[in-house]
Design a protein that fits this description.
Blueprint (H helix, E strand, L loop, with lengths): L1 H31 L5 H8 L3 H4 L1 H13 L3 H8 L1 H21 L3 H29 L5 H29 L4 H4 L1 H15 L17 H20 L9 H23 L13 H30 L5 H6 L2 H19 L4 H22 L6 H16 L2 H9 L5 H41 L7 H16 L4 H43 L16
């Protein structure tokens, strides 16, 4: 009988893990899949570029608001009900997004889809962590990490394929069958933990905490998503939302430290490893989403690739990460310290950034990017699992869910900060490099004068008169300057990301190792 129950437990664990990974993958793919469909949506909805950007912004705001509350909501409604309810909300909103007839309908349904999706991410991680005994959590995080790392990469090529061969609503419809299967499996197999806690009455609920948290992270996400195109603090809306976010964060921290039933347990951050893990997860989000954003952008804007082609080149690198993750999980299981693996991963990501900085030219081809991205995939495989297992390694019971909420939120915010900083920095560096190169266009610069005269002679030999030939030469030079300044700004971004990862190495060495012991209380 005992043997039968072990087999039953093993098969149940496999189903739970598959369900959780499917849900995490659904959520993360949806953060990037819409990027390639914005043009079609814009034409279909009759929206401006600024308005259609809300399709991405609304989803990110819904995500980042719900993630910190996930642990509390799981206790309030029961994990199984909350997880299954989130899957159902996500699936229904996917259908509604595909059927939206106006721009603001689509934005509303994307926000609600983000609310359902944010819960999937953190609850999936908590479920996978707890369903394994402590000494096997490295492998558990490897399985979960495959969804988190591969998801952002799969979004653009999948979205590109669906838009090119069908139409944009299908990027949402593809979620529906998977969502139905995940909801049925969640209701059947996910169980509530044995430390569930008591449900709070409406009077006991920390309503002010919810309001302050929503205002703080919602406004912060809005500023990060919309700041660059609105010229940051010169725009009154960005300035006001920044102030609201800062004040709300202060009030939220005060409220949670003094409230009897806080919605977010900030005291869990007293754990040293979680504190370090939160910082490292932020850096990981910065690099993961930042580089996933920058490479397709470069390939499309500078090399003229389609969105589908740009997304497709990321796939082999994602497969490299997926191949390596179980190996890294095994290394942790066999006693290799997470700190050493993660520090190696940070250093390799720095090498990847330097490599990317060095190979970029206006003529860089596909063959140069393939090995660069494979190396990136290898580096990422050595980051996610050690950082996550280290972050949650000294937590027990419901603290695991609370810790996962913090790491999930910081990964999301790290990505948002990364994209916002990268776009602003690129815009600034582009202007700096352009001004620097224009400064060399003067009559006493012999190299410029020789090149300019050569171009004028070339245009005149094609039949243009002198005045038109000179004008054409200046236009051609301006085009070259623009192209070179863009490439130089991308090079600066690669180097900037590399330096951020280099800074992470000494931080991770402060974390403490945890002895891997079997924790049977977490085996449901």
């Amino acid at each position: 009988m005992e043997q039968d129950s072990l087999v039953e437990y093993g098969s149940r664990r496999v189903i739970i893990v598959v369900t959780a990974i499917m849900c995490a993958l659904l959520e993360i793919v949806d953060t990037t899949i819409v990027n390639v469909a914005l043009n079609e949506m814009k034409g279909n909805m009759g929206a401006t570029l600024s308005e259609i950007g809300w399709v991405i912004t609304a989803y990110a705001i819904g995500n980042v608001i719900i993630i910190p509350m996930t642990s509390w909501l799981s206790q309030q409604f029961g994990r199984r009900n909350y997880f299954a309810g989130s899957v159902i909300l996500f699936t229904i909103c996917s259908l509604l997004c595909g059927n939206a007839s106006t721009m603001w309908e689509l934005v509303l349904f994307r926000f609600l889809q983000g609310v359902g999706g944010g819960a999937l991410l953190v609850t999936s991680q908590t479920i996978i962590t707890e369903v394994f005994p402590k000494e096997k959590r490295g492998m558990a995080q490897a399985l979960y990490g495959m969804g988190v790392i591969i998801g952002p990469t799969l979004g653009p090529p999948l979205g590109g394929y669906l838009v090119e061969n069908y139409s944009w609503p299908y990027i949402f419809y593809i979620n529906i069958p998977l969502g139905i299967i995940a909801a049925i499996l969640a209701l059947q197999y996910v169980r509530n933990p044995n430390y569930g806690g008591t449900k709070k009455s409406a009077k006991q609920v920390d309503w002010w905490g919810i309001i302050f948290l929503t205002a703080a992270v919602g406004c912060l996400q809005f500023v990060l998503e919309r700041g660059q195109e609105s010229d940051w603090f010169s725009d009154p809306t960005i300035l006001i939302t920044s102030i609201v976010s800062a004040v709300s964060f202060y009030l939220f921290i005060w409220r949670e430290m003094t409230c009897a039933n806080p919605i977010v347990n900030l005291k869990v951050l007293k754990d040293g490893n979680l504190k370090i893990g939160v910082v490292l997860t932020f850096i990981l989000g910065f690099g993961l989403y930042g580089s996933t954003f920058i490479i397709p952008l470069y390939l499309q804007s500078s090399l003229g690739w389609t969105a589908f082609q740009a997304g497709l080149i990321m796939v082999p690198a994602a497969l490299m990460t997926a191949f390596m993750m179980p190996i890294v999980g095994q290394m942790i299981q066999r006693g290799v310290k997470q700190q050493y693996i993660a520090a190696t991963g940070f250093f390799l990501f720095f090498i990847y950034s330097v490599w990317g900085h060095n190979i970029l030219t206006p003529d860089t081809g596909k063959e140069h990017f393939f090995w660069l991205l494979m190396f990136r995939g290898f580096a990422l495989s050595m980051l996610f699992i050690p950082i996550t297992t280290l972050s949650l390694s000294t937590l027990k019971g419901k603290e695991i869910g609370e810790g996962a909420s913090f790491t999930g939120m910081m990964r999301q915010l790290g990505g948002s900060f990364g994209v916002a900083l990268i776009t602003t920095y690129m815009s600034h560096q582009n202007a700096v490099h352009r001004m620097d190169m224009i400064g060399h266009i003067r009559p006493d610069n012999l190299a410029f004068q020789q090149r300019f005269d050569g171009m004028v002679a070339q245009f005149m030999s094609s039949g243009s008169p002198l005045n038109i030939a000179r004008q054409m030469a200046y236009t051609a030079l301006e085009g070259n300057i623009m192209k070179q300044s863009v490439v130089l700004s991308y090079m600066d971004v690669f180097m900037g990301i590399g330096i951020v990862f280099l800074v992470g190495i000494p931080i991770i060495l402060f974390a403490k190792s945890s002895k891997a012991k079997v924790d049977m209380s977490n085996m449901h």
